[in-house]
Amino acid sequence: MFNLFLAVFPEIFLINATLILLIHGVVFSTSKKYDYPPLASNVGWLGLLSVLITMLLLAAGAPLLTIAHFFWNHFLRKDDFTYFCQIFLLLSTAGTILMCFDYFKQERFNAFEFIVLILLSTCSMLFMISAYDLIAMYLAIELQSLCFYVIAASKRNSEFSTEAGLKYLILGAFSSGILLFG
Fold first, then answer.
1. Residue 80 belongs to what domain range?
2. Shortest CA distance to 90 belongs to which of 139, 140, 30, 50?
3. Domain assignment of residue 151, yes or no
4. Ranges for the NADH:quinone oxidoreductase/Mrp antiporter transmembrane domain (predicted)?
C-alpha cells in the first residue's frame, strides 16, 4: 500500500525548510551580536539546497507511482504526469533562484524574504499540480497569489512596485470573490 506520508513528504519538507529559512533570516538579520549581516546570498544558497533535496525526495518516491493514487478522499492525486510536472517545477525554481543572485548583486537588493516567498510559492505550485479537487486547487492558487502580491511590491522605494502590488491585490480579491460567490 502506498504510504500517505510518503506521498506528500517532499512538499512537507519544502514547507519546513522554508519556515526554518524564514526563522534563520529573521533571527540573524535583527541580531546586534552579529552586526546585522546581509543574508540574501546565504538564504539563497540554502533555499537552492532545499529545492534540490526536495527534488531528490520526489525522485526517491517515483518508483511507487506505477498507477495513479488518490489521497485524502480524492483531495490529491499522484501519478507519472504530476511527478514530471513537479520535477520540471523544481528545476525551474532552482534556475530562478540562481538568476536571483545576479539580480541581488546588480540592484544591491538585500532582502532574504524574496527567496522565502519564492519557496512558498513553489510549495503552493507543488500542491496545485497534485490537486484533484477544486477546493485544493483554489487554496493552492490563493497561497501562491499571496506570495506574488508581496513579490510585486517588494521594492520599497519604488512607486511603480507599490502600485503594482496594490493593483494585484485588488484584482485578486475581486476575482477570488467572483470565483467563491459566483
1. 1-133
2. 50
3. no
4. 131-182
